[in-house]
Fold:
Amino acid sequence: MALDPQSVEAQTSLAGSLASRVLLGLSDSRAADLARADQLIGGALAASPGYALAHQVKGQVLCARNRWKEAIPEYEAALASNPNLLGALNGLGWSKLYTGSIEEVIPLTEQAIRRSPRDPQLHTWYNTIGTVHLLQSHPDEAILWFEKARSAAPARSFNHSALAAAYALSGDLDRAAAELAEARKLRGERSFSSIAKMKAGGFWRSLSAKTRALYEATYFAGLRKAGVPEE
Structure:
């Protein structure tokens, strides 16, 4: 960017890095990161409206703002230009899940796994499939996929919190408590201090009514059993 502020590739890559930092919970300045990402990706798409990766990153930025429905056409535009954009497949899958089209998620994720079976983001795809099984009240199947996700990325707190919920729903409260403790250690105690605080952000309010109901009946029900208090 310093050498060429108008570089579409640089604008897109930097916007994607900023959005990823927010999505992973690593940003200390969420609003500023997203404002800059919006500016960068807007410039990239204005200069090159057919650039597939820019549409993928625009989808990421919208997801970071919890605007899942708006992200879907961006991911679809990216895949129409380049069907091998694995990040777009993953983002489209999560956006479909959060907007309530849960039955479409696993086929999209399986496409990504087939195309890149050794991908660095494989743990994210395993977690996606596990989440679908959990929301469909299949905790044993969910555990298999969450364990694969944890093995691939043991430092990601969301793999441990998901396992905590799945183990609790399957009746294994000791393992559930151990996974919850690991998630708290990795993400910070406040992140899992209560169900109410977990729901307080914009993420929960942005989900479709169908998806909220599924999370309530499975993920949050499991975390309650694992030891997360209501308030």
In short: The chain has two domains: 1-108, 120-231.
